[in-house]
Design a protein that fits this description.
With 224 residues, the chain is of the alpha/beta class. The chain has one domain: Rossmann fold. The protein is 50% helix and 15% strand. The protein contains 9 helices and 9 strands. It has a 5-stranded parallel sheet. Helix 2 packs across helix 3, helix 4 packs parallel to helix 5 and helix 6 packs across helix 8. The radius of gyration is 17 Å and the shape is globular. The two termini are 18 Å apart. It binds adenosine monophosphate. The site of adenosine monophosphate has 17 residues, from helix 2 and helix 3.
Length: 224
């Protein structure tokens, strides 16, 4: 099962992908996480990406497609995957389709998680990310009035406020989403491979809605 989770930054794509992947034994691939790992490793790619990411703009299609070509060939992708944060442009969607054709595989479904802009700004500016385990932490886990940095409740690491989760950069990311990524929704719709979910509901309700759609489309699959 090869899925793409689509939605504005802060729509809950990453949170939902992390919950859905286990039942179907899928690899969860976030291009944002791969780029942040490159930055942490101090690689050449990381250094180039870091400057772009700080502004809320997109890293080039060429770099991202090269990264995904490598990632999708790894062993953990054999049973299928959930892509989170990719494709973010129509050129990336077309590149992914070509990549899939070359691997004798295909995209099965785009799951669009819809949330309005006001809610996105509220969610992103109040969330924190763990430097160590990568967990995305919300006020539900950390309480209200969260400091920019603190101790992660899930590991020994520290959480922090991502530079691109500051209000001015969030607004830029939303503009980029509307201009570059919204057309990707049409790409999936035109292929009759799009389902839409109301992402403003409670996270568990959104997860149940996605499971229900996957059951309808792909049948029951439970893992231990
Ligand atoms: P995310 O964690 O998915 O919100 O991504 C954080 C930042 O990484 C984005 O604002 C972009 O600068 C960059 N990025 C992540 N995925 C992509 C992609 N598919 N194409 C271009 N840039 C990306």
């Amino acid at each position: 099962m090869n899925l793409v989770f689509l939605g504005a930054p802060g729509s809950g794509k990453g949170t939902q992908a992390a919950k859905i992947k286990d039942r179907y034994e899928l690899a969860h691939i976030s291009t944002g996480d791969i780029l942040r790992a490159e930055i942490a490793a101090g690689s050449e790619l990381g250094q180039a990406a870091s400057k772009i990411m700080e502004t809320g703009a997109l890293v080039s299609d060429e770099i991202i497609l090269g990264m995904m070509d490598h990632r999708l060939r790894q062993d953990d992708c054999a049973k299928g995957w959930i892509l989170d944060g990719f494709p973010r442009t129509v050129a990336q969607a077309e590149g992914l389709e070509a990549l899939m054709a070359g691997m004798d595989s295909d995209l099965d479904l785009g799951v669009l998680i819809q949330v309005d802009a006001e809610e996105v700004v509220k969610r992103l500016s109040s969330r924190r990310t763990c430097k160590e385990c990568g967990a995305i932490l919300s006020p539900a886990e950390l309480g209200e009035d969260i400091p920019e940095e603190g101790d992660c409740p899930k590991c020994e690491g520290k959480y922090f406020l991502r530079d691109d989760d500051r209000p001015e950069t969030i607004r830029r990311r939303l503009e980029v989403f509307e201009k570059e990524t919204a057309p990707v929704i049409g790409f999936f719709r035109n292929r009759d491979k799009l389902v839409e979910i109301d992402g403003s509901q409670a996270p568990d309700t959104v997860t149940d809605a996605i499971f229900s759609i996957l059951r309808d489309q792909f049948g029951e699959k439970q893992t231990a």
